[in-house]
Write a sequence for this structure.
């Protein structure tokens, strides 16, 4: 056997093992999915060529050994990963004349659930496929996992626990100063589910979507789709999918391809299984994967372009990330000219220099990534240097090295204006102070030039008029529009002011609830946790976050300074005599009488009603103009006996 090939196989196993360990057991991502797949395929090809499979080869492993502090649990049957392809025609050939079930391949953590006598008895992570971690305590706080179900026999099912993009961004936005943001929703879900504090699971909105029924005593349903429908009747959230055949498969893939552009859940492809359960099971399995299903991974559209510079982008957490700026290319229907390199380690690994030809793609068709540097360099080529000073405040930077030898750059200046970017962007949002025209790029420019340092500075822009109109891309007209928008926002509601402060976990609804009970601005800063908890809808976590915010001297001073700039209107009187006063509503689907769902929510609250985002036992009505739809909210409402009404029926109630 060729010693060079043997050595390369050892190197590949080591690289893949380290990447898998990081992926499964920490919040660090040390290589992209594309890089991992490339190395994996190289290793697999060498094994096929040489006929040798090294002990512990990553091609023979399903996952990686768990290394957390949660109790270990052996799976009753080994959990295998699916074989995968990026070739649509190969997928069609694999399906043949059979009917299949095509569904999202969600990118989270696989969890096995066990029920006996109608109650959840155990939840176990996939782990390495043979041994997982006991996550039962945390599972009780995951959306989509019922604690009790009507089926009383032994039940085993599998699904994906994950965090959506919107909740992922919310969690990153509430991290304390200096904390490294999570790289992606999967890493956040991984760390959250391994937490010993179930409260964190609830706060971060982890959701579970069942994708297969493994065992159910006495249930004789031979259809994958039928089994998932049965699970939804039991109260589970299930993964969405379509029944397909060879003729409809390709068009179904195209449908999913369009949907993923606005899909809030992280997905790295699709899963196709034979809908006939018995037939699929009769095919057996290999050492690595079952033969009843196939994973389809998105074939990333790539484009070659020229690197023009490395820009350093400070964040509100203090991290300064390198960003590749390149000639504009078209990817997945959008123009792309920049991609984050995430950290110094990735930048060094790519060995980038200005003028290089780089290959760019969109990970999961969403996030721009520099996948490969196609220019080879001699040792004397100078790559972009790591900056010594923060590009915003000019203070010295520092390189931090993690336990996994990942290098990141940080600004240690606690007063760096860049750390307030997220705060300013939130402040101008429509549901906050609604200052129209302040795009993120405008805010960044104003922060970098010292025009914005505190919230009150939005109302003092005339002091910087000459500097603003002389900026590239600005002028008298744009300056006037921005100042006018800021002036218009001075007349506002107290709940908007409270929400605009960016208090962790205090959203629009919570702000309205608090201000309805305590409508004086001076009173808000002195509220205690005990007073807040008495408000229906405000829990202990929100109350403690609220009190902690106003205990910080800087936050209190900034609040006082902001109040001096504003004219807070008296709260509109709530119509407590309406027919919906005291009732709780959930809204889903399209509306046509009101402009949008937000306007309908405002109407409900103005008439003494309450709104919620999810159907529960406390819900009085679900408003849905399509009462016959099979949506998750409709199914939940029917299960709980919640009445489903149209907008017309709602008007009749009022």
């Amino acid at each position: 056997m060729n010693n060079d090939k043997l050595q390369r196989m050892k190197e590949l196993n080591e690289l893949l093992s380290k990447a898998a360990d990081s992926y499964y057991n920490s919040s660090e991502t040390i290589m992209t999915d594309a890089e991992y797949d490339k190395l994996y395929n190289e290793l697999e090809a060498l094994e096929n060529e040489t006929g040798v499979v090294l002990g512990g080869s990553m091609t023979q492993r399903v996952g990686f050994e768990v290394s957390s502090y949660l109790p270990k649990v052996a799976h009753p049957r080994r959990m295998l990963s699916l074989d995968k392809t990026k070739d649509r025609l190969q997928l069609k050939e694999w399906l043949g004349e059979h009917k299949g079930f095509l569904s999202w391949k969600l990118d989270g953590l696989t969890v096995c659930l066990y029920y006996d006598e109608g109650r959840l008895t155990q939840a176990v992570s996939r782990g390495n496929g043979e041994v997982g971690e006991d996550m039962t305590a945390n599972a009780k706080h995951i959306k989509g996992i019922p604690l009790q179900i009507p089926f009383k026999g032994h039940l085993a099912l599998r699904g994906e626990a994950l965090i959506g993009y919107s909740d992922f961004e919310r969690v990153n936005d509430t991290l304390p100063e200096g904390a490294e943001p999570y790289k992606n929703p999967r890493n956040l879900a991984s760390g959250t589910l391994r937490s010993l504090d179930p409260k964190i699971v609830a706060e971060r909105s982890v959701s579970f979507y069942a994708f297969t029924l493994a065992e159910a005593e006495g249930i004789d349903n031979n259809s994958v789709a039928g089994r998932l429908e049965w699970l939804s009747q039991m109260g589970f959230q299930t993964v969405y999918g379509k029944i397909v055949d060879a003729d409809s498969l390709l068009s179904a893939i195209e449908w999913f391809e369009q949907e993923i552009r606005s899909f809030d859940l992280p997905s790295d492809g699709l899963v196709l299984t034979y809908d006939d359960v018995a037939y699929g099971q009769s095919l057996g399995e290999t050492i690595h994967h079952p033969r009843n299903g196939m994973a389809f991974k998105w074939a990333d559209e790539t484009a070659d372009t020229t690197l023009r510079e490395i820009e350093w982008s400070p964040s509100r957490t203090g991290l300064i990330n390198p960003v590749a700026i390149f000639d504009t290319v078209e990817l997945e229907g959008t123009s792309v000219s920049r991609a984050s390199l995430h950290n110094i380690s990735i930048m060094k690994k790519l060995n980038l220099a200005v003028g290089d030809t780089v290959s760019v793609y969109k990970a999961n068709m969403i996030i721009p990534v520099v996948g490969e540097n196609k220019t080879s360099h001699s040792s004397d080529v100078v790559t972009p240097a790591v900056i010594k000073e923060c590009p915003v405040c000019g203070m010295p930077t520092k390189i931090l090295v993690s336990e996994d030898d990942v290098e990141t750059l940080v600004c240690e200046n606690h007063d760096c204006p860049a750390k307030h970017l997220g705060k300013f962007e939130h402040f101008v949002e429509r549901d906050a102070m609604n200052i129209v025209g302040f795009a993120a790029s405008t805010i960044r420019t104003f922060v970098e030039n010292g025009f914005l340092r505190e919230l009150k500075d939005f109302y003092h822009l005339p002091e910087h008029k000459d500097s603003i109109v002389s900026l590239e891309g600005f002028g008298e007209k744009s300056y006037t529009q921005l100042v006018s928008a800021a002036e218009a926002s001075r007349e506002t509601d107290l709940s908007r002011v409270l929400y605009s402060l960016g208090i962790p976990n205090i959203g629009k609804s919570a702000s309205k609830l608090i201000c309805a009970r305590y409508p004086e601005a001076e009173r808000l800063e002195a509220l205690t946790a005990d007073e807040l908890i008495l408000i229906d809808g405000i829990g202990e976590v929100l109350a403690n976050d609220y009190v902690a915010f106003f205990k910080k001297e800087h936050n209190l001073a900034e609040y006082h300074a902001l109040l001096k700039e504003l004219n807070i209107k008296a709260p509109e009187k709530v119509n407590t005599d309406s027919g919906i006063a005291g009732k709780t509503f959930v809204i889903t689907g399209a509306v046509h009488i009101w402009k949008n769902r937000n306007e309908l929510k405002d109407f409900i609250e103005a008439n003494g009603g309450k709104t919620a985002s999810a159907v529960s036992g406390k819900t009085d009505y679900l408003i849905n103009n399509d009462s016959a739809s099979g949506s998750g909210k409709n199914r939940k409402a029917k299960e709980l006996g919640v009445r489903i009404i149209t907008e017309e029926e709602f008007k009749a109630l009022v």
The chain is about 35% helix and 20% strand.
